[in-house]
Hints:
There is one protein chain. This protein is an all-alpha fold. The protein has four helices and no strands. It has helices at residues 41-54, 66-75, 82-90, 95-98. It is elongated. Pfam families: DNA_pol_delta_4 (PF04081).
Amino acid sequence: MGRKRLITDSYPVMKRREGPAGHSKGKLAPELGEEPQPPNEDEAELELLRQFDLAWQYGPCTGITRLQRWYRAEQMGLEPPPEVHQVLKTHPGDPRFQYSLWHLYPL
């Protein structure tokens, strides 16, 4: 009998291709003359609201709007951030701003 067979014997050997020197896998080089864009004002405001959604100290947020949650937290004396209230008041009809991350989840 010969040697004991290994599972790797069933597969052909594949040699890895060497990349150019100094090339780091997973990072894309920025285009020449192109600077990274800072997040616009809406993105910064949406990030503030996402952080408010994730803050457990203001109570649950499923089934209600962010503004309803802000008012409930204020009524309970939890001191929600006034910046959140300001952002919600400046975008009254925009669902991206008014609804929490979990607004579609049933109660």
